[in-house]
Amino acid sequence: MTDPCSVKVAVRVRPLVPHEISKGCKEIVEVIPENNQLLVRSAEKAFTFNYVLGTDSAQEELYEKCVAPLLKNLFEGLNVTIFAYGQTGSGKTHSMGTSYNGDENPGVIPRAIQDIFDHIKDTFSVDYTVTTSFTELYREVLYDLLSNRPKEQSILELREDVTKGVYIPNITELPVESAKEVLDILMRGSTGRATGSTNMNAQSSRSHSIFTVNIAMQHKLDKSQNKTAKLHLVDLAGSERPKKTGAQGTTFKEGVDINKGLFVLGNVISALGDEKLQNGFIPYRDSNLTRLLKDSLGGNSVTLMIACVSPADYNYEETMSTLRYADRARKI
Ligand code: ADP
Ligand code: MG
């Protein structure tokens, strides 16, 4: 079992995409797998992470190396949170599999769901109750992606209570009994994600999407043995600075709010890792993203950050910014 309160960081470099190749972009990111290191041309230092995945890495490799080992913690009653971080177009949604559509070679979420249900099928001594929810955080407003109501009527509220901790009244939490059911729910929810057009990527995602699987476990013979665990799979908003998208007006304001969530998440992860602060102040309350994930960051939980980067020279600044963010998370 992984140490509770552990944070691991994986960096994945995607291949050049067609529009980068046609623009004549050069690759400037090099991976040294044997040292878990990553070099960016013209930057002085090498970065070291728990896992580095180069441009030829398969979806299966990401899952088997970085994610599958963490999921075992769920069945011990620990919460597991997996983030995809990076600029728009860096491969977050591809890696997470958030917009799963029956793909043959899916990302993390469909694979995790399949593994969870395979484990459940193989464990006869325990009764499992699994539910799932899917939310989106957009400009600090939380939306229920599984609600049948129109978007503007599916706004959720985050509440806090001494005994319950953080909870979300009226959230749609669907009971599920098979991987197929969860995948259908994932497909249904991901079509409702807010997207906006910027000149970086027509499908630019400026919201955080949070897919959650809740697992309650009760031993069949010894009713006193029960545990619960949550798996959060978070496809974060693009980390780019608003100015690079060329967006204006509302879009610019969106950029500012979103970066606040990412900024606070960085602070929370960094505070969790600072021993002197372990019993002290962790700024969960500074953003809705961290409030929402409070009981799944630190304490009885395990976290993986998948930092996604483009290999292209054109994205040098954003790539360095992502690596610095990931580096800060790793120093725990
Ligand atoms: P993001 O969610 O970070 O905005 P996407 O996941 O949508 O980025 O990826 C942007 C584009 O790059 C998509 O066309 C996607 O298919 C492609 N892509 C991303 N990662 C990879 C990868 N590892 N291998 C091949 N193509 C990738
Ligand atoms: Mg995306």
Quick structural summary:
This protein is of the alpha/beta class and 332 residues long. It has helices at residues 18-22, 59-71, 92-96, 108-122, 179-190, 250-273, 288-292, 316-330, and strands spanning 6-13, 29-32, 37-40, 47-48, 51-53, 79-85, 126-138, 141-144, 155-156, 159-161, 165-167, 174-176, 208-219, 226-235, 301-309. The chain has eight helices and 15 strands.
Description:
The structure is a single chain. Helix content is 28%, strand content 26%. It starts with 5 loop residues before the first strand and ends with a helix. It is an alpha/beta fold and 332 residues long. A hairpin with a 2-residue loop joins strand 7 (126-138) and strand 8. The longest helix is centred in the C-terminal third of the chain and has 24 residues, at 250-273. It is globular, with a radius of gyration of 19 Å. It has helices at residues 18-22, 59-71, 92-96, 108-122, 179-190, 250-273, 288-292, 316-330; strands at residues 6-13, 29-32, 37-40, 47-48, 51-53, 79-85, 126-138, 141-144, 155-156, 159-161, 165-167, 174-176, 208-219, 226-235, 301-309. The strands form three sheets. Strands 1, 5, 6, 7, 8, 9, 12, 13, 14 and 15 form a ten-stranded mixed beta sheet that branches. Strands 2-3-4 form a three-stranded antiparallel beta sheet, with helices on one face. It has a two-stranded antiparallel ribbon with strand order 10-11. Helix 6 (250-273) runs parallel beside helix 8. Residues 14-15, 17, 86, 88-94, 201, 205, 308 line the site of adenosine-5'-diphosphate (ADP).
